[in-house]
Specification:
The protein is of the alpha/beta class. It has 7 helices and 11 strands. It has 2 domains: 167 residues, Lysozyme-like, CATH 3.40.80; 92 residues, no CATH class.
Amino acid sequence: MPEPRLPGAELHLLDDAPMVGDGGARVIHHITWDRNASATAPQDLVPFDNLLGYFTGAGAGMAPHLLVDPFTGRIAQFFSANSRAKAVVNAAGGVETNRKGNVCIQIEWLFFPYCRVGGKVYATLADTPMRGLDRVMAWLRSWGVPDVWPMGAPTWSANRNAQTWNTRSGHYGHSQVPENDHTDPGPMPNIFQQEETVTPDDIKAIAAAAAEAVWNRPVKIPRMQPDGSIKYEGPQGAEWPLIWGNVFAKQSEQRDADLKAAVVTLQGTVTALAALIGKGGGAAGMTPEQVEAAVLSGVAKALARAAAAVK
């Protein structure tokens, strides 16, 4: 069973009463409309706590399930999801409204046309940031409310049809509920548009994909050829730990420079010694044994410098 209480909402539960239970899941959207403002005479938004006090006090007989501030995302809950609320008229002998279906969740958005918040004036609910909408929509979907306006998205004009109300689940404006005469909530934003969110699992997947991309990136390292030239080739076997040690080290750029310098030194040493051997060592007054020793010593030192560069 879905959670009857919206996670994270402030709970001010009044009472619970059963629904008709004749199927379907509906939502009714309202605005509090507690002041009459205009484009030329806007007014400050009424504080959330004022409405909270009203719905838990003198206005308990007209309380919705949720009171939501679209500017801050603050939410208060007065009834469980599977209880009736009391925010619409239900005429005796007519269609069911507050108790219709399996759930009929009613939401009062803290808003009135041309309210002023932070110095900015908002003409319709569609103009507000609608903070808290993602949480509310996830909860409504968990109760089986489909992403649809059976009577079309609400406007400031009333549009009611008892047959549609009785047979179709989805979202309704107060202006679309039978037996009622209000015209709120007016234009709504696209409440069905789901915003992209990044979860911890998403971050792990992104990191794994990035690591794979780096791992599969062509890596070339300088390799001494038999003729004394340098050729850049892919790493082999035991060279991989050295390569990745460089990639992830903070000093990787410096080590790369050191490695290149070591390779140049190695190449220069081999070239010089090769020239010396070609002269038989005589020009330097060296015996063949001394030339061999110099070769081994020079190569060993150059290789040691290259190894140090990749540690």
